[in-house]
Design a protein that fits this description.
Radius of gyration of chain A: 13 Å
Shape of chain A: globular
Distance between the termini of chain A: 37 Å
Number of strands of chain B: 9
Mean pLDDT of chain A: 93
Low-confidence stretches of chain B: none
Number of helices of chain A: 0
Distance between the termini of chain B: 38 Å
Strand content of chain A: over 45%
Strand content of chain B: over 45%
Number of strands of chain A: 11
Radius of gyration of chain B: 13 Å
Order of helices and strands of chain B: EEEEEEEEE
Oligomer: heterodimer
Largest interface: A-B, 29 and 22 residues
Low-confidence stretches of chain A: none
Mean pLDDT of chain B: 93
Shape of chain B: globular
Number of helices of chain B: 0
Largest sheet of chain A: 7 strands, mixed
Helix content of chain A: under 10%
Chain lengths: ~120, ~110
């Protein structure tokens, strides 16, 4: 299967600072990348859909000014959590695929655990 | 998005088959049935998917009911490494929906040695 890598695997930041999480497709060009958030003992919640070269589409209730998503190339998307607060502490996961005929399923990164102190 | 219903948890013994059910009575004609699993503190892993016919791969088999309102993921011989949360997800291929997955609560599978 295709490989998606996230960096960092975990990060601790101070309240009020911003933190950037990277999602890379290592062996394919990702036409679409997705960002999810998962709180302990809960399921994954889709935050936004990002198509290369376009603005991200955010799910209802997700603040686009707080969770900045950039998908500037076919192999990289970034999620920046701005002015992070303790309630933003969560497991952030990206998925990616080439849905213009190459892939029929999405491939997930290993996740990034964010702790805001 | 069409919803799925899965049992919250299931138990299995090692080296025995496991049948994980999923109900999706509101499935539409363009919905594919996907199964992913998630081990603790990891991203989900693709298991299998299908549309109408039963599917087999090296990880599992997917049995789809004739009316497509339910499906069953079959692990032929459970191992301890199969202990995970298994998600059954409907994904539409219509329009620009490729790869978009809406996760339910899933089934937490525990495997006893």
């Amino acid at each position: 299967g295709a490989v998606v890598s996230q960096h960092p695997s975990w990060v601790i930041c101070k309240s009020g600072t911003s933190v950037k999480i990277e999602c890379r497709s290592l062996d394919f060009q990702a036409t679409t990348m997705f960002w999810y958030r998962q709180f302990p003992k809960q399921s994954l919640m889709l935050m936004a859909t990002s198509n290369e070269g376009s603005k991200a589409t955010y799910e209802q209730g997700v603040e686009k000014d707080k969770f900045l998503i950039n998908h500037a190339s076919l192999t990289l998307s970034t999620l920046t959590v701005t002015s992070a607060h303790p309630e933003d502490s969560s497991f952030y996961i990206c998925s990616a695929g080439n849905f213009r005929g190459q892939h029929t399923e999405a491939f997930f990164g290993q996740g990034t655990r964010l702790t805001v102190v | 998005d069409a919803k799925t219903t899965q049992p919250n948890s299931m138990e299995s013994n090692e080296e025995e088959p496991v049948h994980l059910p999923c109900n999706h009575s509101t499935i539409s004609g363009t919905d594919y049935i996907h199964w992913y699993r998630q081990l603790p503190s990891q991203g989900p892993e693709y298991v299998i998917h299908g549309l109408t016919s039963n599917v087999n791969n090296r990880m599992a088999s997917l049995a789809i009911a004739e009316d497509r309102k339910s499906s069953t993921l079959i692990l032929h011989r459970a191992t301890l490494r199969d202990a995970a949360v298994y998600y059954c997800i409907l994904s539409s291929r219509s329009g620009n929906q490729g790869g978009k997955l809406i996760f339910g609560q899933g089934t937490e599978l525990s495997v006893k040695p």
